[in-house]
Amino acid sequence: MTISHLLQSQMSVGVASARSQVCLKRLLDEPQEHSLKCKRPYLAPPPLTPSLSPCLRPRGPASQPTHSQSQSRIGPYFLVEPCEGVETYWAVHTHTQQRYTCKVLPLRGYQEHLAPYAQLGHHDNVCVPSDVVIGQDSVYVFKPGHHGDMHAYVRSRKRLDEEEAGLLFAQMLNAVTHCHRHGVVLRDLKLRKFTFTDRHRTRLALQSLDDAVLLPDANADALTDRHGCPAYVGPELLSGGKASYSGRAADIWSLGVSLYTMLIGRYPFQDTQPAALFAKIRRGTFSLPDWLSPRAKCLIGCMLRKSPAERLQASELLMHPWLSESKAAAARQRAPQHSWFSLPHAIKH
After folding, report:
1. Any idea where the domains of the chain sit in the sequence?
2. If you average pLDDT over every residue of the chain, what do you get?
3. Catalytic residue status for 271
4. Which of 124, 131, 137, 188 is catalytic?
5. What positions does the domain Protein kinase occupy (predicted)?
């Protein structure tokens, strides 16, 4: 969602493998004019060029998906049903029966969408494409299936205890730190972007880089366009005019909103009317319940600062005592507990 559109209307108020990563980089080097000449009625490889790796070419003829079909064949995959997100579907591999998500992109400009993934490389908390299939009019980007997103999980749990929230938020922060270090600003950062990679819902990965921007200079993150979910945007994005803002600092604000929501069970700034919501965000005033620990309050306060310059960087937030405390508490729970009768002892003859 583009924030500037809302403001104008309310002005009064893991890589699956190293092979996949190499193939992705080669695909990004492929000139787009070659693929745009494909006019065949079935999925077929674009004209052969040395820069296109065979592992990312279509696996065989397949019809284009239609919304009226319950299942559509795309290369070695079946698109089963729509899932959360625009033009996103659940998919099943025809041979392995493994589940995937499939993002359907226009053929023109798809390389720009994939560029941030190639820049980031492998990271445990960032989900990158495992396969890309080029069709006649669209490109199909496949990623490993997941077990639900953080937004739905928090809603089902109402709110999370500090220990669980700390373990999950540390993984979210690790993903954002990795992106920022490699010159990728996420912009539309929110709980829904993070999904569980295991059925026990203990491991998280950043599922989507939609709306992310690849900085030409990793040391300069000044942006002018305004993207994001209204509940997660920082006050600097709501100022009038076209003044630039720090993309990384805006991501940190969104992380603060995410952690607040995980621990409290509601957004720090909320209103049914966009104009009233934006007014609350501009003021930057929020409340914290007394039962929240001082360290958790401190960490939220380090991110939800009205002045972007006063917010800590992602790498600095990783060293916060609250995250270390949550990690230590989880380690104590995982440590085996020995009773007196289970300890080994020497046998005397």
Report:
1. 150-333
2. 80
3. no
4. 188
5. 78-323
